[in-house]
Structure formats: structure tokens, C-alpha cells
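Predict the assembly for these two chains.
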Amino acid sequence: MMHYIGIDIGSTCAKTVVLDPKQEIVLSFVLPTGWSSVDTAEEIRSRLCGAGYDPADNCCVSTGYGRVAVPYTQKAVTEITCHAKGAMLLHGSRDLTVIDIGGQDTKIIRVEDGQIKDFIMNDKCSAGTGRFLEVMANTLGLRPDDMCELARQGGGVSISSLCTVFAESEVISLIGRGEKKENIAFAVVDSIVKKVASQAKRLEDDSLVCLTGGLCESDYIRTALGRQLRTEVKAVAQGRYAGAVGAALCAAEVTKKR
Amino acid sequence: MADRREMWKELGMDVDTHDGLCAALPVAFGDVYLSQKNRPEGMAFWDFVVSDIHGIRPAELLEAQKEGRKVFGTFCVFVPDEIVVAANGIVTGLCGGSQFWVPDGEKVLPKSTCPLVKASVGARLGRTCPFFRIADMYVGETTCDGKKKAYEILGEDVPMYIMDLPQMKRECDMLKWKDEIVAFAKKVEEFTGNTITPEKLDEAIRLINNKRKALARVFEARKNPDNIPISGTDALLVTQIAFFDDPARCAEMCNKLADELEERNRQGVSVFEKGTKRIMITGTPMAIPNWKLHHIVETSGAAVVCEEMCTGTRYFENLVEEGLGTLDEQYMALSKRYMKNNCACFTPNPGRVEDILRLAKEYHVDGVIDVNLKFCCLYDTEGYSVERALKEAGIPVLGIETDYDDGDSEQLRTRIGAFVEMLG
């Protein structure tokens, strides 16, 4: 029986999903992208083969910034299309706004009646991306997810620079001043949430808003983003795999066309 | 190809640095142009021009100068070529379209200046472009703040004349632009030593109109809804070279190309597969060799069928009235034609949005990319009205800001790829 493989090679993590013909997720795993997308793609292949889903026998679509580095893919599709399709399936809705805070870019995608109507991506600068969070967490000596949780207990401090490099020096001076870690964590998360929210507001939408990508696992980021956007931001357990799920759905379409 | 190093040395160029550009350009041209499939045969002329871009035309201009003719370098489609031609002068475009010149421009200009202005100043001060060396006089205009101040810097190095373009389109502005054209004509007469007569001016008006008509024919062939006879990348090159070429030859070559494109439309010979999405690009100009966006679009599954920009429809649309008997009438006719251009420097500027919506229909476009060269405040701000109008008309639009550097190519590829996927 033909299965559909979706591979989302992001700048930080590579996500893989296998869907069965009923669009149920039968396998999902994450690997660090590392420094070579080609090597990562190879490791994904051997894992897939080990689980009985050899890409040679199943249709495979790749996405993410490393999408062209997957030699065994049948098609490369952009992460905008894949995140939209994946979020539609995971959230069971054809009208929604998808926010994906990725490693090197943040995407806000508006979907109406199952079609992408508009999307916004941040500029090449890393402000408002997962990389920004990662750098700040490193400076604080924390794991990114721990920093996001710690932020819940903080407040009263803000970071004014959007630039990752300048913001890092701000964080260092806050540390030097003896500011509490939770307050700095709050400032970092607050900064990224505001940046993402201001981008999302440009789409002027009031449909279902959902957060995908690795950061959707942070309950605090989701709540803080909802507060800024004055609406509930939804997330689902498999949200991190939205791009890969979308790629697998594209694989199903590729197969159908043949 | 002839060895041009002697000529470049005599022009006072920094030949060693210029070699870097000479080495890079054929590679870029090969990647972007020669890799395309099923190109019109007529493009061979433009391929030939680019293969010796700093040789053939500069050598012609130098010959003309030996005969006592003057060369005027311009930076904008508002400077009327007709005036220069009527005084037996020659016009050459001077806009810089390569990152190669930007660092030399940044030596004197703020980094937050648009790349076109930085590259233009850099090409002069770095002595790495023959056209910037050959021009006897530069003619600037007040279309943006960056250029206005850059002209002051260029003026220290080369004779510089500035035309003051009105920024509104009232009756008094038409008259004001006519006065500016009159003053420019006087300057050109002094500088060339030739008198502009109504006969000579009418001849020049017809010559430049013919060039516009020929370019319009090439664009007309791109309107065919079922066939794409020429890639946008090739069409862009045709427009870019038109700024440098002899106007009569430009018209001749464009008419020949248009014949071929019309035949291709009859035969159904297309550069792209049936169903390829048709994109219009609107916004800031793309000076040669800026082919970045067209290349990305056309290697991402779509085709560019129209450019609403100065290196596009704004260059050739609208003709100057011919057959007028007095200079006064002719200057007014010139003012009227040039003031029809809907550059973002005007306020208010509803004509540009109307043009874009009209062109979107005429060229049967599926989507529009609104492109802004970084730090161009005028087009960037006008992008709001442009994108809103397109959305209201149900035409998908993607806003892009970029410069000459290739650092954002992959990001652009993702965005443009997603936009093309979105078009279905």
C-alpha cells in the first residue's frame, strides 16, 4: 500500500511524517538539521527504510529551506504551501490563519476556503524568529523551551532592539545589572511575540488563528501571542510537524496526478 | 571580441578593477540568459551587444565625439531625448544596475541610499564604467531626494545639469515642465553649439516616437493570452539596452524582433509550457545588469509578461504629437507627453494604480509582484495603495523589497515559489 512521505528540512530541525492513504500519521520523527542537509536527508532515508517506508516505493515531497537537498524527493514545495495544507489537516479547518515561527523565518499565512489567499514572511533579518529565541536562551544559559516557561513568572522589563545582535547586548547588560532571569526571559519572549503579532496584524484577519512549528509546544508563547492579537491562538500536539504533514499531503496529490 | 583595454585606459578608467566586472558579467549572462530554452532568434542582437557591452557602443560614442558631437548621460525617463537629438547630440542612459559599483558609491553616500543611486555614483567615482567616462554632460532631474543630493556630489566631478520636475500634475505644473524643457533646450544649444529648429525637433520627435512604437510592438506581442513568445528576462534586456542604443537602430531591431514574436504567436511557439502563470512586475526600475527578480520568477515556474516600471511600459507608453510648426507648440507637446508618466514622485498619483489595473487586464496577468529597491521611500510607500487596489480587484499581489546583492536570493525564491504555488 502506497504511503506518503513529507520531509520538512528547516534551518534547525528536520521533520519527517508518513501518512497512510486515510491521511493518518503513521510515523513522525525529528532530527537536528546539522550542518549538512544532504547528510540529514540520507539519515532520514535510512530511518524511513528501517520503518518499512522506503522513499523509493512511496511518494515523497520535501519542503523547508533544505527542500532541494533531498535527492530522493519527487517534488520540492515551498514551506508556505506545506504549512497551510498541514495546518488545515491538523486543525480540521479550511479557513484559518497560520503562524509559523521558524528557525530563520516567520510566516503568517491566510487560508480561505482551503486556498492560500495571502502570506507574509519576515525579511532576511532574524528578528522575530526562532533563531532570536535560541540566541537569547543561550545567553541566559537556558534551553529555549525552559526560557519560554520561565518567562511566565517574569515581567517589568523590555528589550527595545529588534536586531538579534543588539538585543543580545541588551540581554547581557540586563544580566550585568543583576536583573532576575525570569524578567529577562519575559522581555525576550515579549519582544518576539510583539514582532510576530505586528506582522500578523497586517493580514487583518479574524478567522481561526493557529500556531505551528516547534514553538507551538510552548503554552506561554501561544497565550502571549493570543493576548497581543486579542484572540485565542490554537495549537495541536503535532503542530511541529505541520510543514511535513503538508508535504506528505502534496505527495498524495502528486501521486493522484500521475 | 576586440581588445578594448586601450580604449578604456584612454578614458581614464580603472582597468584592473573593471576586469573584475568583465570576468563576472559573462558568467551571470550565461546563467541567466543563455540557459533559457527556445529563445527568439532575434535575441542574438542583444546577446551580441551584451557580449561587448562596454566596447561596441562606447566605441561608437567616441567616434561621434571625434566628429564634434556631444554625449549627454541621463538617469531618468523624464529627460527628453528629443531635445538632445534635435541639437545633433546623443543620449546614453547612465543608471547603474550592479552590486559591483555599490561599494564605491557607499564611500560618499549614506548606506541607506537606494542601490541604483549608489551604483550610479560608484560607477563614476570608481571609474569602472565607460559610459560614465564618455558622457560630456550629465543631465539629472528632481525625481527623488537620493538623486538630488547625489547629483551635487557628481557635479564636483563632471558637468551636471538638473531639470526641476514638478511633483504634482496641475495645469501650472505642465507649464512649469514646459519651461524646464525650454531652459534645457537652451543649455543643450549652448553646449553643442547647434541651434534647435522646429524642423529638427520634429524630426527628433518622430525618431524617438518610432523607437517607442517599436518597443510597444514587442510588448504588444506579450499580451497574447495563449502564447508567451518571449521570456520576461529577454524582454527586460531589450528595454534595458534601449536606454543605451542608437534610437534608429533600436527601433529597427525591436521591429524585427516584434515581427518574429508576432509570427511565433501565429504559430503557437511559446517559451513556456501552456498554463504557465503570467506575472506582471511593477515598481522601481531595473537598470542593466539587474536581472535578479525576472530570473527567479522565470525559474520558479512562472513567466513575466509585463513590466510596469521605467524599464518597461513607463519608458515607451504615450507619444509626442508630431507635425507641429513652432518650437513653442513642440515644447508644450513634449511637456504633455512626459507629464503623462505616472512616477511615484508625483502626489497624488492615482494614474499609476489605474495603469497597473489596465495593464493587468491587457496582459492577462495571473498575479502581480510589486518590487521595491531598498530605501526607495516613494515606491515603498505607494506600494500600500498599489497592493490594496490589486487586492480589491481580486488580483493576487506579492510585495518584495530587495537590492542588487544576491544574499536574499534563496529567501526570494521561497516567497516567489510560494506565490506561484498560491496562483494554483
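Strands of chain B lie at 71-74, 90-93, 137-141, 160-163, 277-283, 302-308, 367-373, 397-402. Chain B touches chain A through 14 residues (CB under 8 Å).
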